[in-house]
Write a structure and sequence with these properties.
The chain is mostly beta strands. The chain contains one helix and 13 strands. The strands form three sheets. Strands 1, 4, 6, 8, 9, 11 and 13 form a seven-stranded antiparallel β-sheet that branches. Strands 5-12-7-10 form a four-stranded antiparallel β-sheet, with no helix packed on it. A two-stranded antiparallel ribbon has the order 2-3.
Length: 226
């Protein structure tokens, strides 16, 4: 991405962040057509409304034993404006406390609704690696104003931000099943930033998110960008 394009992209996103978002009353109005040419997409929700195209970065440490794993409460993006203000961008670097560097990169899960972090090559995770966490993000473009539900399943817990607002969290240890939590939202026409942080104690490490109408059907008129 050229320096000029990056400046324009972040200026637009910065203005949107200042405008803010309140579930049910306001939304962002950023259009992907105004974004840099190397933004990835658009992609479709799958047949059940699951988002299968994400940008992912990690792993980060999540030390301790349940129920006291500490990473859930640590903002590993604090040097980049913080979790609540962060905008995932493909290829952007994040420096960890141990001075190692991780990069945001795309993951496409074409055949499964679950995003299994152990299957994401660029994370470099060992099988059943323990005490870690990962961030994932995407952009949702709405063709019109929409009343929707975001439905989450996770293993283990998560924090979920929509347009820089924390709309849900579960500090919990569990297996992931479809639609464990539901978050009703009103999204105005335009593009909306989704960021999720998923933590891992031990065992499986995955999450799933789908976008549906209030009656549970796959939302139409939604595009996904990375």
């Amino acid at each position: 991405m050229s320096r000029n394009k990056m400046c324009v992209w972040f200026a637009v996103l910065g203005f949107a962040a200042v405008c803010g978002f309140f579930v049910g009353c306001k939304g962002l109005a950023i259009r992907p057509t105004a974004a840099p040419s190397d933004v990835l997409g658009p992609y479709e929700l799958d047949s059940d409304g699951f988002i299968t195209d994400w940008l992912v970065v990690g792993p980060f440490p999540n030390p301790g034993d349940r129920p006291d794993n500490k990473g859930f409460h640590v903002d590993y993006l604090k040097n980049y404006g913080g979790e609540a203000n962060y905008v995932p961008v493909n290829g952007n670097e994040v420096a960890k406390d141990d001075k190692t560097i991780v990069k945001w990169a795309q993951y496409q899960s074409r055949h499964y609704s679950r995003i299994n972090f152990f299957s994401i090559d660029h994370l470099g995770l060992g099988y059943n690696e323990e005490d870690i966490l990962v961030y994932a993000g995407c952009l949702l473009e709405c063709e019109n104003d929409m009343q929707l539900e975001l439905k989450i399943g996770s293993d283990d817990g998560y924090k979920l931000w929509l347009d820089h607002k924390l709309i849900g969290q579960q500090h919990i240890y569990r297996a992931a099943y479809q639609d464990q939590e539901t978050y009703p939202v009103k999204l105005l026409k335009g593009t909306h930033i989704v960021l999720i942080k998923v933590d891992q104690d031990y065992g499986s490490f995955e999450f799933m998110m789908r976008v549906v109408t209030p009656d549970g059907k796959r939302a139409t008129g939604i595009k996904v960008w990375n």
